Amino acid sequence: MAENAAPGLISELKLAVPWGHIAAKAWGSLQGPPVLCLHGWLDNANSFDRLIPLLPPDFYYVAMDFGGHGLSSHYSPGVPYNLQTFVSEIRRVVAALKWNRFSILGHSFGGVVGATFSCTFPEMVDKLTLLDTLLFPLESNEMENLLTYKRRAIEHMLQIEASQEPSHVFSLKQLLQSQRTALTTSAGSCVRIPSGSCRPTSYSSSESGPIPFSHPQGDMGARSLREGALA
């Protein structure tokens, strides 16, 4: 264990998500009731380093870094850092940990996220503990409609991701060979990257076979790409 690690720290975790990974720290007993610890805005999992050793040791505490915080990957460009995305992130994390029911310990904005998750997925949360958290008031009917929408949106998104086929990664040579009936080597050499951009070493495709383009179509597409790169 590193010298600056909190007493009782048993492991550091890296959980895979579509945009990279979520980093987390774990303390306590692996056989104990699970507790998910949520940090505040622009904070990270280290904020629990001094608190966890003071809590009962027979629980299994996992403090996660929200996306874009601590050691976790940033979201993909265009994805907002807001309450909805953080709530869905918790759903991903507990799925990766294989937790069906757990408790939440939330600090500041992490408490807001934890409380919203608890209302959205109440059957999954055993206990909710909030530290320095200011909750936002909503009318009961407005809250019910909002949370129903959030739950459906999150579950639908996860179902779509689970049903997607894995993408296939090719080198330029493999790409040309797989499209040999439609894309000539000379046409493929016209694919250029604008100056200042990183030239890719591989290409990704979710297609299971060659794209049925004729030679004229391939040459026309290559010319369009070339003209766009030179513009």
TrEMBL record:
The keyword Membrane does not apply. Pfam families: Abhydrolase_1. Residues 33-143 form the AB hydrolase-1 domain. One of its GO terms (cellular component) is membrane. Residues 201-231 are annotated as: Disordered. Keywords: Hydrolase. GO terms for molecular function: hydrolase activity. InterPro entries: AB_hydrolase_1, AB_hydrolase_fold, AB_hydrolase_sf. Belongs to the AB hydrolase superfamily. This is SERHL2 isoform 4. The lineage of its organism: Eukaryota, Metazoa, Chordata, Craniata, Vertebrata.
